[in-house]
Amino acid sequence: MKQWIYLDGEFVTKENAKVSVYDHGFLYGDGIFEGIRIYGGNIFKCKEHLERLYDSAKSIMLNIPLPIEEMQDVLLETIRKNELQDGYIRLIVSRGPGNLGLDPLRCPKASVIIIVEQLAIYSEEAYRNGLRTVSVAERRNIPDALNPKIKSLNYLNNILVKIKANLADVGEAIMLNAQGYVTEGSGDNIFLVKKGVVYTPPCYLGALEGITRGAIMELCQKLGLTLKEEPFSLHDIYVADEVFFTGTAAEVIAVREVDGRIIGSGQAGPVTLSLLENFRKIVTEDGVKVYD
Ligand code: PMP
């Protein structure tokens, strides 16, 4: 079956989905995006993802050429056109084509692209055993330079971290902020569990306000787990009972090793596994149904 991509009001095949070399998303990373999951025909946390997209747009003064309700309709249409039940949605809004100068005023119209695809996910073994990870020297972008709450197309900070993870032959890496507090992974939020309490860093330290992070915080409350949004350091990670990452692609995945220190039992711990199990129960419910 053909893969259809939504490109500025039209559906084109993957082969024909081309953007201008003058697009400021390409030239400067000037744009924003969302990564969204669809589970059994349900767009998980659709509203939250769209709201984050429009908030990012507002923050960088990017005028999305369709209102949020229409964006949701287009999203649904793209999924239906691709007959997708389970997979990943990449929604991109770039500043659009301009000239070679930086000035966004030279970009008359933002470009909207929606790609829906099957998703290659971690193996069930990885969810049970956990990931090895390292901390890296590269600090998270400071919020008063480029706020990590903006899900911008400028992912070079994250890519540099991914390169370090690759060099260390691990699946994900941990970024600190300029003060040495833990912020997040290259593409995931981070949590730790100590003596039954779940901790995650506040996003003002320099992290994306992950939708999965939000869902896990809600689940903690539902399951009666104490959750604290508090700054913590690498030391706290090393001595934690459990550490896990959350993200649209990764869901809830345990960390078994950080910088050579074995975390807890060296496998996914009971809190992590319980959160994963409960998370997987809500992903087909909490969102917008595509085929009703
Ligand atoms: N942090 C970063 C830097 C990310 O790219 C992502 C993935 N979008 C996350 C955290 C997790 O966010 P979400 O749960 O919304 O996918």
Sum up the structure in keywords.
292 residues, alpha+beta, nine-stranded mixed beta sheet, seven-stranded antiparallel beta sheet, globular, binds 4'-deoxy-4'-aminopyridoxal-5'-phosphate, transferase, branched-chain-amino-acid transaminase activity, EC 2.6.1.42, BCAT-like_N, amino-acid biosynthesis
Tell me what you see in this structure:
It is a single chain. This protein is an alpha+beta fold. 28% of the residues lie in helices and 28% in strands. The chain has eight helices and 16 strands. The strands form two sheets. Strands 7, 8, 9, 10, 11, 12, 13, 14 and 15 form a nine-stranded mixed beta sheet that branches. A seven-stranded antiparallel beta sheet has the order 2-1-6-5-3-4-16. Strand 1 (4-7) and strand 2 (10-13) form a beta hairpin. The longest helix is centred in the N-terminal third of the chain and has 14 residues, at 46-59. 41% of the residues are buried. The model has no long low-confidence stretch (mean pLDDT 97). It binds 4'-deoxy-4'-aminopyridoxal-5'-phosphate. 4'-deoxy-4'-aminopyridoxal-5'-phosphate (PMP) is lined by residues 35, 158, 184, 187-189, 208, 210-213, 246-248. 4'-deoxy-4'-aminopyridoxal-5'-phosphate binds at residues 35, 158, 184, 187-189, 208, 210-213, 246-248.
